[in-house]
Amino acid sequence: MGRSCGEENGVAGAGAARGADGATEAHGAASVWRTGDLHSSDDRAQFSALLEDSAEDLYEHAPCGYLSTLLDGRIAKVNTTLLDWLGYERDDLLGRRHFSDLLTVGGRLYHETHFAPLLRLQGEVSGIALELKAADGSRLPVLVTSTVRTGRDGQPLLIRTTLFDARDRRAYETELLRARKEAERERERLQRLAATLQKTLLPPALANVPGLDVSAYYHIASVDEVGGDFYDLFPLAEGAWGLFLGDVCGKGAAAAAVTSLTRYTLRAAAVYDPDPVAVLGNLNTVLNHEYNGADPRFCTVIFGLLTPDPDQGGFHVTLASGGHPPALLMRADGTADQLPTPGGQLIGVLADAHIGTTAVRLAPGDTLLLHTDGLTEAHVNAVDGEDRYGDDALLDFARTLAPTTASDTVDAIRDLLDTFGSGVDDDTAVLAIHVPRPPSGELT
To answer: Are the beta carbons of 429 and 230 closer than 8 angstroms?
Structure first.
């Protein structure tokens, strides 16, 4: 507060201070002399002179501004430090100006509406940032602390105010704000870059398969990083279609590079030989060859070959999986089950990975759902983050949906992910294909 070096009766205040601190200072000086650091009498005299600051000098040339005002705000006393800061003569202020007259327009408004009422209520206001207006019109940012001095009867007598030069602090805050805005702009730029890169790793639109409805969704867990999930559906030889969905380990640019290589390899391999086991075997060879050093990269992926069933309607689907979560089949009769591919190993880890396979017929009204593990590994309790959603819960969820369509399935998964909120800490891709029922009266 202002009392420590701004007592109104300065001599008494300084005397009290010296009474409290003088013994310490003298003890410190004597200690220095005893150590032999001051050898000559001149050195000792100069050192003694440093400890003989007068009360008036302590007040007038303190490293902070001091101001005493009457209760109506008229300036009754001001130190030289504050006068030098503002460029005023003492007679310009004493009895002629109020403290609020030294403030800028905004500061004056704040003083009248907040500062002064709070001071009257509490008797003290500390560390308030205001701006003073100097004699030349320039502005001086300060931190202001004011206390109400009372008499023995408890009645307020005057207001003592201490002001600290905040120009360096203001410059620091300005630079900090500039740096923060620059960081925010950079983050927005990186987010746009990540979003653009993410789009290039996904098909702009899914292929139109006659006799099949298809829907997909990509849930981004973090806008700051590119995820490694991917999916696609594309034509092969006449009457055949390929589909895949997978998840590359890691995030960021490195994962994006692997994702790009994976998508390209799967498409190219499927054109050469559409057998799902051969396609994933080709991808395994490529990833194992490219990323077998100090930074190995791998993925889980499921690849499917779709061929129409001209006799009974619907499609035959052959699925091959390399360590990927099982697909879900929701039947037209309202049942739902997993399509396990046991023994499938991660793609890219081993030189000769085992590929798990399964085959199924999609009848009219059936829906096949492929998903990445961002869905089943989502935290259902975002507070402690312990409970995972899990495969069993997803299967139960699918059973409540069946029978369903591709778009309804994806919409339901989207809503489910939204209920997890921040519990979804990994990207999630889902791909659903549905065989519509034939128009009423037609045979399947």
So the answer is: yes
